[in-house]
Amino acid sequence: MKVKKYVAETMPEAMNEIRKELGPDAVILNSRELKGNGFFGFFRKNRIEVVAALDSQPIQTTDNKKQFMPEKLLSDNELSKTNSDSTDVVSEIKQLKKMLQHQAFQSTNNYLPEYEVIYQYLLEQEIEDQYSKQLIDQVMEKYKSANATPSPVDILQTVRLEIEKALKNTSFAGSSDDKRVVQFVGPTGVGKTTTLAKVAAHRMLNEEKKIAFITADTYRIAAIEQLKTYARILNVPIEIAYSIEDYKNALQKFASYDLILVDTAGRNYLDERYVKELKRTIDFNEDMETYLVLSLTAKSNDITEIYDQFSHLSIKKIIFTKIDETHQYGNIVNMALRGYVEIAYLADGQNVPDDLIEPTPEKISELIIGRYNNE
After folding, report:
1. Whose CA is closest to 292, among 310, 274, 273, 278?
2. Among 195, 208, 329, 349, which is least packed by CB within 10 angstroms?
3. Is pLDDT larger for residue 203 or for residue 105?
4. Residue 96 clears pLDDT 70, i.e. is over it
5. Contacts of 289 (CB under 8 A, 6+ apart)
6. Could you read off the pLDDT of 226-272 as tens digits, one per residue?
7. What is the mean pLDDT of the chain?
């Protein structure tokens, strides 16, 4: 095996030298930042030291088609069977595997590999680039200020804490007593009706609220029947609003109730006319609160566009559904850090009322970072 040390101004420069001399099959064994030697401490410039290796006689598989790769030394299943006391060792090995897999990536951020691989993971979690860089830069600054060399596990756990810190100013209040009328809006297929029933059951069981339903989803007979079924199970009254007059009459009928939850028809958010039609049936005013229901399975750009289309309805809070149908949770962080609205609930299944989560910064960071060692 050929092992050689490279020193360069930046990581991309070092990677270019390695590829030029050792070729694309080289692997990174270690990297560190070197403090520059200046004149009486002045004019110092830090450099990057990288140790790379190349096996001149790689082991061949029986079919003579694939080379034996270092990252295949242990399978994920074998790693998961390791004794629980070796959790940090397992994490370190998996981190090394990820670094090997990303070694050919030429970063424009000049991140050391142990930071670069976690930065790439945050992007894979669909956390926007500006927020991913912000998190990594803050973690790097912490260790630089402390003049410490962190392990990959240290970096990962510090990123988790930075996510929680970034979310500390976001409200996760869920539904509140500020408004008696709460309306659920959103695009088609996100699970508004089921989510409404979960919130109703949650507040009835935990807060003993007297609740009533109104449905303005008259486009789908099945939607009306679905909400009627939930109303029957929860023993709450329900009214159907075919017009804004029906809607106002229903509000008057339920004047003595603590909380009125309103279901609406799903809309094609790409057509502004459909979204504006909501105002023909629903009376959006300052005495009411509107929740936007979004599926976490939607693409990041779609979620932003959906919010923009519905924003004229004075959206107060967001509920993310279908978190059990995806492994990417970064859009929760994106929406929170943009400072648009509060994150009220997360929904992770069809069971009423069980599959409803009241989010916290800790739960969100666990969702994001918890996937790292499972990939």
Report:
1. 310
2. 208
3. 203
4. no
5. 176, 178, 179, 181, 182, 183, 316, 317
6. 899 999 999 999 999 988 899 999 999 999 999 999 998 876 767 66
7. 80
The tens digit of pLDDT for each residue in 342-371 reads 899 999 877 777 789 999 999 999 999 987
Q: State how far the Cα of 184 lies from the Cα of 296, in Å rounded to an integer.
A: 16
Distance CA 88, CA 154 (A): 10
3-state secondary structure of 365: helix
For residue 345, the one-letter residue type is Y
Which amino acid does the sequence have at 307? Y
Indicate if the pLDDT at residue 330 is higher than 80.
yes
Q: What are phi and psi of 59, to 5 degrees?
A: -70, 135
**Single-letter residue type at 157:** Q
Which residue has better confidence, 310 or 281?
Answer: 310
Q: How many secondary structure helices (H) and strands (E) does the chain include?
A: 14, 11
- Tell me the residue ranges of DSSP E strands in 133-220: 181-185, 211-215
CB 315 within 8 A of CB 278: no
pTM over 0.85: no
| Rounded-to-integer distance, Cα 195 and Cα 352, Å | 8
How does 207-231 read in b/e, with b if 16+ C-beta sit within 10 Å?
Answer: eebebbbbbbbbeeeebbebbeebb
- What are the E-state strand segments in 60-187? 181-185
Residue 349, number of CB atoms within 10 A of its CB: 17
pLDDT at 277 over 80: no
- CB neighbour class for 130 (10 Å; exposed up to 12, middle 13-18, buried from 19): exposed
